[in-house]
From TrEMBL:
The protein's name: QueT transporter family protein
Organism: Vescimonas fastidiosa
Key words of the record: Membrane, Plasmid, Transmembrane, Transmembrane helix
Pfam families tied to this protein: QueT
Signal sequence residues: none
Transmembrane annotation, as ranges: 12-33, 45-67, 73-91, 98-117, 137-156
Highest taxon, organism lineage: Bacteria
UniProt-listed InterPro entries: QueT
């Protein structure tokens, strides 16, 4: 991305708003927060592959969502920065099939670690609790990013409105 334009800002804002709305909608079903989570909005985390400017929007959308988190300030900071890191790594992916991988790995490790620390602190039970949380968070991410996100990766390049705006196809 050479120059950040008003169109880029608008795209990032729409993606951020969509992320927040989808996540808050998911909280109605109890799948947005906690060790067993599958945020529908995480499917949007593949968008930086085509639209690098959406990384900031995903961060802001996640930040807005995490303001409602039962894990408080820790989730607001760690969860939101994890989404930003995953989005930046996704933007740097060279192959389409790898684009959903950064959110799966980053959230599994970082959010899984945060949840384990919240549950047991750095006690002897941390390793087992971390493994369980990391696996369950990564599984939810896998479903959202490789399941729903892959649909976006496959369909968006076929829509002329989006194709003309993509950084790679």
């Amino acid at each position: 991305m050479k120059k950040f334009t008003v169109q880029h800002l608008a795209t990032a804002a729409v993606v951020g708003a969509a992320y927040a709305v989808l996540s808050i909608f998911g909280s109605v079903f109890g799948v947005t927060f906690g060790p067993v989570q599958c945020r529908f909005a995480e499917a949007l985390c593949v968008l930086p592959f085509f639209f690098p400017e959406t990384a900031g929007g995903l961060f802001v959308g996640c930040l807005i969502t995490n303001l409602l988190s039962p894990y408080g300030l820790l989730d607001i900071v760690i969860g939101s920065l994890t989404t930003l890191l995953a989005a930046v790594l996704t933007a740097r992916c060279k192959r389409k099939w790898l684009a959903p991988l950064p959110p799966v790995v980053c959230n599994g490790l970082l959010v899984g670690g945060m949840l384990a620390w919240e549950q047991v602190g750095f006690t002897d039970a941390f390793a087992a609790t971390f493994a369980l949380n990391a696996a369950s968070v990564a599984l939810g991410e896998l479903l959202a990013c490789y399941g729903l996100g892959s649909l976006l990766l496959w369909r968006l390049p076929k829509i002329s409105f989006f194709k003309s705006r993509m950084s790679k196809a």
